[in-house]
Specification:
This protein has 68 residues and is of the alpha+beta class. Helix content is 26%, strand content 21%. The chain has a domain of 44 residues. A 3-stranded antiparallel beta sheet has the order 1-2-3, with helices on one face. It is flat, with a radius of gyration of 14 Å.
Length: 68
């Protein structure tokens, strides 16, 4: 099953947050590889417990703002 991982820095810690928008799971780690591995484990455990979880379609887009 192919899923999406969105990884970004946590504004309050030195960790990276990893989220899977299709399933709704999230995890974190000190590196991108660690955050992704933790997200994969969290998502796998979640789907083991909730095999009927509804997979929400995800689309990733970028946009620009006039200021900032």
């Amino acid at each position: 099953m192919k899923l999406t991982a969105i990884i970004y820095p946590d504004s309050e810690t030195d960790l990276l947050v990893a989220e899977c928008p299709e399933i709704g799971t999230a995890s974190q780690g000190h590196t991108e590889a660690e955050a992704l591995a933790n997200l994969q484990e969290a998502t796998d455990l979640y789907l083991e417990s909730f095999p009927q979880a509804v997979r929400k379609p995800a689309a990733i887009h970028t946009f620009e703002l006039a200021h900032g």
